Amino acid sequence: MSKTIKKIGVLTSGGDSPGMNAAIRSVVRTCAFHNIECVGIYRGYQGMIEGDFKELGPRSVNNIINKGGTFLKSARSQEFRTPEGRKKAHDNLVKEGVEALVVIGGDGSFTGGLLFNAEFGFPVIGIPGTIDNDIYGTSHTLGYDTALNTVVEVIDKIRDTASSHNRLFLVEVMGRDAGHIALNAGIGAGAEEILIPEEDLGLERLMDSLKRSKSTGKTSSIVVIAEGDKTGKNVFELKDYVESNFPEYDVRVSVLGHMQRGGSPSCFDRVLASRLGVKAVESILEGKSNYMVGLLNDKIALTPLEQAIKGHTEIDRELLRVSDIMSI
Ligand code: ATP
């Protein structure tokens, strides 16, 4: 392992996700393990531009493995999109003696990192942190598993009230472009139907399914809908549509919103964050740059950042079939 790098900077950028703190902790402690310094950069790229840095040692990250969000704070920085902003950020890193970056965030953050590397030859390694699980090169992004557990827990509670009142609940979950949360949490929570952006199942099919449910004696139902579903109706319009076709249904809407992004990370996310942090730092020490660390077939693997940004994640179509069978 070549150890020419003496100081690594770590930042969180874009939307926060549970497990980011655990990843920062892992980066900081792996640096300490290899006797190199670590600098926390507050508020993502904006903090880099403003020189908002703090030296972090292994004891600076006590008691954060269990905390949601990110103690380094996250931000979206318009200024970093400009060459002048990136130049300021680079000057600050050089002044601070930081020689490589670990960027924890989504594809936008990786795009910024890649550009930064192209302009200044600065080593950058990415850790995928987003609840949507829509990043190529990893089966799981940080926070996705926690979000699934949060959604299932909430739908379990909704089910209690749905079954007590013979109601149909339309539950909207996050996922503008990707249905991973809806599909997996939907199956996990026993949803009747799941509507996702990747599949246009059509309103007809939803109506048929509800009709079938009624005729087979189901008195309450849960339908899970990703924000970006393809029905062309928002969840409230969908409620009106269902009610106009089935006046006998008492339809309620629940939009889960930001609660899906918060909360204490699951054990899975904590372990994943710890593994990814170690690999990120050790990859830098091996002289690597422009890679994302991810989980592939339960092994930590590197994917070129460019591929991680451009590649598309696919939903597991077998899960659609499983969901169909379960809702008989
Ligand atoms: P999320 O998945 O939560 O949206 P993200 O990392 O994709 O996370 P973005 O807001 O897209 O979130 O990007 C985070 C930050 O990365 C931006 O605020 C900006 O500072 C930087 N960034 C994104 N795209 C670019 C780009 N094309 N050039 C330079 N910087 C960029």
UniProtKB/TrEMBL annotation:
Pathway: Carbohydrate degradation; glycolysis; D-glyceraldehyde 3-phosphate and glycerone phosphate from D-glucose: step 3/4. It is found in: Cytoplasm. It is an enzyme of class 2 (transferase). ATP binds at G15, R76, S77, G106, D107, G108, S109. Substrate binds at T130, I131, D132, R167, M174, G175, R176, E227, R252, H258, M259, Q260, R261. One of its GO terms (biological process) is fructose 6-phosphate metabolic process. One of its GO terms (molecular function) is AMP binding. The keyword Magnesium applies. Keywords: Allosteric enzyme, ATP-binding, Cytoplasm, Glycolysis, Kinase, Magnesium, Metal-binding, Nucleotide-binding, Transferase. ADP binds at R25, S26, V27, V28, R29, R159, G190, A191, E192, K218, T219, S220. The active site is at D132. The keyword rRNA-binding does not apply. Residues 7-283 form the Phosphofructokinase domain. One of its GO terms (cellular component) is 6-phosphofructokinase complex. It comes from the Bacteria. Mg(2+) binds at D107. Catalyzes the phosphorylation of D-fructose 6-phosphate to fructose 1,6-bisphosphate by ATP, the first committing step of glycolysis. Homotetramer. This is ATP-dependent 6-phosphofructokinase. It comes from Flavobacterium succinicans. The lineage of its organism: Bacteria, Pseudomonadati, Bacteroidota, Flavobacteriia, Flavobacteriales. The gene is pfkA.
